[in-house]
DNA sequence: CATTCATATGAATATCTGTTCATATGTTAT
DNA sequence: ATAACATATGAACAGATATTCATATGAATG
């Protein structure tokens, strides 16, 4: 048994070259972690609904809260998470703060996922 | 103030036609919920790592557990979740059960997300 | 048929996460 | 400056979730 082989199921199902290939082609741990973190942000129906609203037009916190029938604080907390992930951006106009999607990428990811769900 | 208008921020930021447009173009609640559920599955680094392993080749539970240095039970639980979401499929070969990606869609979603992360 | 090995599953637990409540910050107008 | 309004934020709580442990199921082999 060569170094790098994986002993498994009391047999050697996976040979050294395959293990090497898998290990080499696996992205770094950090990237996989970040990727999971990104999906986690999409993985909440409140945030998904916010994103779909913003797909239509920019909105202030109060607009979103009313359209989703939720309280202002909850929306504000979620917007903070969305902003930290750079999925939305905001601009202040007087007392209001208007949120919009950060870039086209968000729309792409959403439609991609929607395709899968609609299958 | 017409029916359908949203009173907001003590002003009428959103007019009836905009509200109507947003409401009409919003996907159904059920779909948004399902979409969030889908992303939730991708939103865990153990499951992400499993998916990236399976991108390379099909593997039995034991292979995966060893490659990820986790115990068999944990992997089995996660594979169950992945299978319920139809992201992976499996086949039995003797005592082993081999898992693989359910379809090309999974790969597309993964690479899509990875693009965003790598920006 | 009993044993061994691979996988699945239920219960328990510790951790994480979303919402609410109370309150702070920041802006406008009187 | 003070009042009124929009938003942000911290603490607390309830509900969800990933992992572990113990054990069950299922298949091959002597």
Tell me what the structure shows.
Two copies of one chain form a homodimer. Chain A is an alpha+beta fold and 119 residues long. In chain A, a hairpin with a 2-residue loop joins strand 4 (88-93) and strand 5 (96-101). Chain A folds into two domains: 1-42, no CATH class; 44-117, Arc Repressor Mutant, subunit A. In chain A, the strands form two sheets. Chain A has a three-stranded antiparallel sheet with strand order 3-5-4. The first copy, chain A, has helices spanning 16-25, 29-42, 45-56, 61-68, 72-84, 104-117; strands at residues 6-8, 11-14, 59-60, 88-93, 96-101. The radius of gyration of chain A is 21 Å and the shape is elongated. The model of chain A has no long low-confidence stretch (mean pLDDT 88). The interface between A and B is large, with 57 and 57 residues. Chain A binds a DNA duplex (30 and 30 nucleotides) through helix 5.
């Amino acid at each position: 048994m060569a170094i790098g082989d994986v002993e498994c199921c009391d047999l050697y199902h996976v040979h050294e070259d395959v293990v090497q290939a898998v290990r080499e082609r696996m992205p770094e741990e950090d990237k996989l972690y970040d990727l999971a973190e990104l999906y986690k942000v999409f993985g909440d129906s409140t945030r998904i609904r916010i994103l779909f609203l913003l797909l239509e037009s920019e909105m202030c916190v109060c607009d979103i809260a009313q359209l989703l029938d939720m309280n202002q604080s909850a929306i504000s907390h979620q917007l903070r998470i969305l902003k930290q992930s750079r999925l939305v951006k905001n601009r202040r106009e007087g007392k209001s703060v208007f949120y919009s999607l950060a870039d086209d990428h968000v729309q792409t990811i959403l439609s991609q996922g929607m395709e899968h769900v609609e299958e």
